[in-house]
Write a structure and sequence with these properties.
Blueprint lengths: L6 E2 L3 E5 L5 H9 L13 H13 L5 E6 L5 E9 L6 E7 L8 H14 L2 H4 L2 E5 L4 H9 L3 E8 L2 E7 L17
Length: 179
């Protein structure tokens, strides 16, 4: 497996998770507001084992998000297979103290640019968002995505944000990757 690249933005570093991140991830996922649109609370012991196992196994395409100016996990951003098997999805979540500062769009934009630079690996990419999650809808729009469909995922209705056949993501606020 090819090592996961570190991604950087002017304010953020997106890096491979390590076992040092287990406790901060558990803290992130223990916040009911962070989990409000993600299925609610998780069992701490089971979640600890799951997170540690995935990190130890080298689960790909999950980045720990941290500020360049103050290292320490503030969130996660990832690419994972869609539950219906039609391509991949981009996901993001941040600790509440990092909300409202543009970090989610900055991190998701970096991951999106990485995915768009490697279409043979990632293929079609969408964000699967609950219709009442206005904040994530705003992030999707800020990184150039627009509604491309609807579906029933994760136990309820969802809007799929992505790039339609005539939408050029490079013209939607996503800078081209550097060669």
């Amino acid at each position: 497996m090819k090592p996961q690249p570190e991604l950087r933005t002017p304010r953020l570093r997106l890096r491979t998770r390590t076992l040092v991140d287990v406790e901060p991830i558990l803290e992130l996922d223990a916040d009911p507001e962070v989990r409000r649109f993600l299925g609610g609370p998780v069992d701490p012991a089971a979640h600890r084992a799951l997170v540690a196992g995935r990190i130890a196994d080298g689960e790909p395409d999950v980045w720990a998000v941290e500020r360049l100016a103050a290292p320490g996990l503030i969130g996660l951003c990832s690419i994972s297979p869609r539950p219906d098997g039609h391509g991949n999805q981009i996901n993001w979540r941040l600790a509440r103290h990092a909300w409202g500062q543009g970090f989610a769009a900055e991190a998701a934009g970096a991951v999106l640019r990485h995915a768009l630079a490697h279409p043979a690996i990632y293929g079609p990419l969408v964000a699967i968002i609950r219709p009442d999650n206005a904040t994530s809808i705003g992030v999707a729009r800020r990184i150039g995505m627009a509604p491309v469909g609807e579906g029933h995922f994760y136990g309820g209705p969802r809007i799929l944000y992505g790039f339609g056949p005539v939408r050029d993501p490079w013209r939607q606020g996503c800078s081209r990757p550097e060669d």
